[in-house]
Amino acid sequence: MIRFENITKVYNNNVLALSNINVEIDNGEFVFLVGPSGAGKSTFVKMLLKEVNPSNGKISVNNIDLTQLKRKNVPYYRRKIGVVFQDFRLVPSLNVYENVAFAMRVTGSSSREIRKRVPTVLSLVGLSKKYRAFPNELSGGEQQRVSVARALVNNPSLLIADEPTGNLDPDTALEIMDILLDINRAGTTIVMATHAKNIVDTMKKRVIAIEKGVIVRDEQRGRYGYED
Description:
The protein is of the alpha/beta class. The protein has helices at 41-48, 74-78, 96-105, 111-124, 140-152, 170-185, 197-203, and strands spanning 2-10, 16-25, 30-34, 56-61, 64-65, 81-85, 158-162, 189-193, 206-211, 214-219.
């Protein structure tokens, strides 16, 4: 469960990013976060990751009060969340297997656990035969599949996808969305910030639209609703 209660964020330069946001996202939901550039989507995502703190209000994720979470506990909280970025953020000196395994090593997983889990998630994203390849030997779609596998390897209850199809061609973007749908069907909550109108309109999931820091629409089976 994600809950934003009366969340307002004003940055130091007096820019209002979010204003009195109230929203709940249940476990197992797939939610698109949409809106024009600068609407406040990135701030919303950064708050979920505890990268940005609200100026006012309360945020809770899986019964953890992020507004009260001590700095020393933030890394442990983030280990329970999977994140997929637009620019992949793979380590170029590590191969596919090692990039995914790295996410387990930082959580203290044993070598045995890593050997068991990594091949499983690589199979899930269709990269079993590419486990020795390095990022520069992969297509953009394949690199994003590695990013998805890395986000999933620690069995997160929440996956945050920040423009995950932004650097992909339409066909490859749909392949990534199919993987995310499978993950969601298995029970993982997904919050995806996107400008991909065709994907949002096709998938007909819950849509939360933000404009100028305010939620202007919150619809089940919603549509994108913007021209940009």
